[in-house]
Amino acid sequence: MLLAESNCTNLSRKRRRDGKEKNVETALSVWFAQTRTKNVPINGNILTHKATSFAKTMKMDDFIPTSGWLQRWKERNNISFKRIYGEKKDSDINAAEYWCQWTLKDLLKDYTPENIYNCDETGLIFRGLPDRTLSFKNEIPIGSKKMKDRLTVMVSCNMTGSDKHPLMVIGKRKNPRCFKGIKTLPVNYVVNKVAYQFQ
């Protein structure tokens, strides 16, 4: 409890107001402080889910963690949302605008929107943690080693959205353990031993 009180309290507030569900808020504050000591990323959805779980344990069936309640709880506990590491590299906006206005326009002039498709692949890091977290304002978030388990997913759709191709998922194993007992999939699954190299 000392950890939660020493780190969570917003000392700049003239008067600290306890929330209506004080027991839930106290439990959430202690859990948040303990979890952040392990550098686990936490966002608003995780907090509301945890608060609901505490309320259920305390048999407070009418407790609803609204966005307003969550914001006030964060203010009372001196918590803000921060990026854990890094920033995006600046894009060349002028070059992109020129290409879209002139080069792309010339390439597409002979096609109807129904016949213009976009196809791209993306990595699905299914065990990855968020790169942002709620933390105490005086805390510097520290990242941890990333989980690199991933799949490659290819998406394709025409310009009007009238023809959306099923997702193609590329994995390294022909029969993953999670496929046991599964006869059909809502996606096209293919195997490639170097699937992770698709960036």
Automatic annotation (TrEMBL):
GO terms for molecular function: DNA binding. The keyword DNA-binding applies. Residues 12-83 form the HTH CENPB-type domain. It comes from the Eukaryota. One of its GO terms (cellular component) is nucleus. Residues 1-11 have a biased composition (Polar residues). Pfam families: DDE_1 (PF03184), HTH_Tnp_Tc5 (PF03221). Gene3D superfamilies: Homeodomain-like. The keyword DNA-binding applies. It comes from Octopus sinensis (East Asian common octopus). This is Tigger transposable element-derived protein 4-like. Residues 1-20 are annotated as: Disordered. Keywords: DNA-binding.
